[in-house]
Amino acid sequence: MSRKFILILLTLTVFAFGISLITTGTETKPEAPTKPVKSRQKEPSFVKELLSDFSMQYRLFKKATLENGRYTYNNGRYTVVFTVDPQFQQKVEAEFKRFKVKYGAFVAEEPYTGKIVAVVSSLEYPDMAMKRSYPTASTFKIVTAAAALDSGLATPKTELVCGGVGDSCSPSVWLNSPFKVKREFAQSFATSANPFFGNLGRLIGKEELLKYARLFGFNSKLYNFPWGIYREPLDGYELALMAAGLGDTTTSPFHQAVIAQTILNNGVMLKPTFIEKIIDNKTGKVVYTFKPEVIRRVVKPETAKEIERMMELTVKLGTVSRRRYFLQLRRRYPDAVIGGKTGTLTEKSYPEGRCEWFTGFLKVGDRTIALSSVAVNNWLYYISGYEIAAVAAMDFAKLYQNYAKLEGEPCASSAK
Asked: How far is CA 378 from the centre of its chain?
């Protein structure tokens, strides 16, 4: 074989090998690791479902039994430990029996954690706390106030000249009545003056007011929670009614407690929960331990503080300042701070009657709770919906020295 032929053969071989490299590619997939990679442990399906469903938490709490000083529920595989404080819960339940509250509910929540510490409904109607078709009445003035203050449209000292008396329910009177009164923001909040808030709502505007209603949770579908519902106002007349708390806007006691919690927590809304911890019965291990969860920042910290101070005025010189049980509370616990917003409107769905709200808070010693009370009363009743909160607050104040110390610090976010 000649040298020339050998050279040609070698050239063809090298060329063919190069074509093979081009065709198959020079990059290869990395080899599988010799050691197994640890995957993130997933939450059991029951735990995941429970933590994402507030209504489910409430249903299980109603089946709970008291063991070792805590409410617990055992489904065989898991034991759920609830956040509700048994001493406080039982005190409020006793008050509902004492005052024969037929249609009503009370909710209390820790403002810096979101833990539900008490929930009581009428014995004959045990789901009143979840009902979200109560009219918001003047408690909606909290949302209107937040929109005006947070946007810089007004301050607590802002004054408006309004027509009609304070409890007038007609926007045409507020705008056209020859009887004119100069009203101040903070005073109007405390006394629940409809003309001031109706006019303020028109100045705020529909889009801005609805934005803050949504920030406070209205029309939300999050978490299977009983959020309030608003119907969008069709004109300026309906906008004024909505801003004063007389529009087509409804809510639940749980939602009202969350609104109060948001104000107390410097404007940050936390996820409300019943769940303290969940234990796997097979292994004895705790598979979930509570930690606060932020939903959103609703208003600026300074706005929340301004509203909190106006809520205090409601008790000092406003709509409940001369109510019997609020007077008792202030006399027995002079160092306690209580504030809130009242609301009164006829409940048109079942049960029908006079719907009375108190949405607020109590600070006593180093303890603070956000609270909400409501009652729907007919011609015969033994306590107002406002004063359910005052009576419960006195029970809390009496117990607070023995009350379990709040865990965690206030959460920050960068919630008539």
From this structure: 28
d(CA 74, CA 65): 9
Which residues, 6 or more positions from 35, have their beta carbon under 8 angstroms from its beta carbon? Answer: none
Give this prediction's pTM: 0.86
Q: At a CB cut-off of 8 Å and minimum separation 6, what does 277 contact?
A: 80, 81, 286, 288, 289, 290
Residues above pLDDT 70, as percent of the chain: 86
Beta partners for residue 249, in sequence order: 230
* Integer CA distances (angstroms), 181 to 8, 85, 120, 150, 313, in order: 110, 47, 41, 25, 20
Mean pLDDT estimate for the chain: 88
pLDDT of residue 349: 78
pLDDT, tens digit, 9 for 90 and up, residues 70-117: 999 999 999 999 999 999 999 999 999 999 999 999 999 999 999 999
**Phi, psi at 62, each rounded to 5°:** -65, -15
User: Residue for token digits 């000092």?
Assistant: 316
